[in-house]
Design brief:
CATH superfamily of the largest domain: Zn peptidases
Number of strands: 16
CATH class of the largest domain: Alpha Beta
Largest sheet: 6 strands, mixed
Shape: globular
Strand order of the largest sheet: 1-2-6-3-7-15
Structural class: alpha/beta
Strand content: 15-25%
CATH topology of the largest domain: Aminopeptidase
Radius of gyration: 24 Å
CATH architecture of the largest domain: 3-Layer(aba) Sandwich
Number of domains: 2
């Protein structure tokens, strides 16, 4: 019976293929750049799109323009499966460096063109298509499916997925985040982050008389190489994730050959802290001794340590060298992952095989996504969606239209298996 239901749902996705692809094109045409992060237009479009198809929809706006759109189907009982995608995209940058308008949304040679097509309006479209197909053909879902379309992912998620969970608007027993990663891969976890702001205060003076002042830039400068030493020591990875970390190291090293600088392999970032001095600001004029200097530092953290431990380590280093530099925590997120033993992983694995014929490859992400908010709240979560990660955040971003359809079938099959497990035979 369930296999027949899968065929019916897949047929629905095939029959509405043009509508699904056009939906993605329309979403790409919304310039939902973040910053500034105002999702009013695209959120209203999605709310209307679902309401016109007889779905009940809720919208939440904890900060002006940061709007989340939610819809729920099923009997409102457990288990609850969450389908999560974000509406915001990174800025398009210099439009002259694009071969087409950044928010074109044009379908050309089987590809949908434009900023956000891969990250992640293609994945968002796959989630919506699966959600609609399931609702159309499953009369009695023994549980709940929540579709969450959120803002703010590209700037940290405070007013999107994080707010929905912290406010109690959304909770669940498993989650699929439609982030890109290709059709035969799923990201089961991601590194944590510790973002710090270092500040040094000086005494201003005329640039011709620096002996009368105290140079804040010179006070801060020794802190930078000191903090970079945090990335030298390998972290002990927990046993239950070691195999996936090792596979991910090999995968990232192989796919980035020739793109690295220096002696380190890309794979090394998965079992080491990484330190990026992202911003430095100091002084006001060339002929003045600078009175202040700040540096913002992005430290990414593998499993086996925590944001708090890294924060403490930085402060101890600064104190140990007696540097007159203050340290402020901007943002902290611990490493997080879903173990392959979780049921949602095995179900996704089965459906990737059924739809694509490929064996799924679990990976560990170097960056972070909204998936962390669900995992860190005890909800097993996988990132699975269409699109090649090498195209995200770059010029001439696009996604292959057929991949959106394929991902929708994988996700809908996983949903059906989640709520209708095979009957045990005696």
């Amino acid at each position: 019976m369930k296999e027949q239901l899968k065929k019916v749902v897949n047929n629905h996705i095939d029959e509405t293929r043009d509508e699904i692809i056009e939906l993605c094109s329309k979403l790409v045409r919304f310039p939902s750049e973040n910053p500034p992060g105002d999702m009013s237009e695209i959120a209203l479009f999605l709310q209307t799109y679902l309401e016109n198809r007889d779905f009940e929809v809720q919208a939440y706006e904890p900060k002006k323009g940061r709007i989340s759109v939610l819809s729920r189907i099923g009997n409102k009982k457990k288990p609850t499966l969450i389908l999560n995608g974000h509406m915001d995209v990174v800025p398009a940058g210099n439009k002259d460096r694009w071969d087409f308008p950044p928010f074109s949304g044009e379908l050309k040679d089987g590809k949908i063109l434009g900023r956000g097509s891969t990250d992640m309006k293609g994945g968002l479209t796959s989630l919506i298509a699966a959600f609609i197909a399931i609702n159309q053909h499953v009369d009695d879902i023994p549980g709940s499916i929540i579709l969450t379309m959120v803002p703010d992912e590209e700037t940290g998620g405070e007013f999107g997925a994080s707010w929905l969970i912290d406010s109690g608007k959304v909770t669940g027993d498993a989650c699929i985040v439609g982030e890109p990663g290709s059709l035969d891969k799923t990201y089961v976890g991601e590194k944590g982050a510790c973002w710090l702001r270092l500040t040094a205060q000086g005494i201003p003076a005329h640039g011709s008389l620096p002996v009368l002042g105290e140079n804040a830039i010179e006070k801060l400068a020794p802190a930078i190489p000191l903090i970079q030493t945090i990335g030298l020591e390998k972290v002990d990875i927990p046993a239950d994730i070691q195999e996936i970390i090792q596979f991910s190291k090999e995968f990232f090293t192989e796919t980035s050959m020739g793109k690295t600088r220096g002696n380190k392999s890309v794979g090394d970032v998965l079992d080491h802290n990484t330190v990026n001095i992202g911003m430095v600001s100091g002084g006001s004029k060339i002929n003045m001794v600078p009175e202040s200097c700040t540096a913002e530092v992005d430290i990414r953290i593998p499993p086996g340590t925590s944001a708090k431990e890294v924060d403490n380590q930085v402060r101890e280093l600064l104190t140990g060298e007696d540097l007159d530099v203050t340290c402020e925590l901007i943002m902290a997120s611990d490493p997080n992952y879903t173990e392959p033993e979780e049921r949602i992983y095995s179900l996704l694995t089965q459906n990737v095989k059924e739809v694509t014929g490929e064996d799924i490859q679990p990976l560990f992400a170097t960056g972070f996504t909204d998936g962390r908010f669900f995992r860190l709240n005890g909800i097993p979560t996988l990132n699975y969606g269409p699109g090649d990660v090498s195209y995200i955040h770059g010029f001439n971003e696009y996604i292959t239209a057929e991949d959106i359809i394929t991902a929708a079938k994988v996700i809908s099959g996983t949903i059906l298996d989640y709520f209708f497990p095979p009957q045990k035979t005696s």
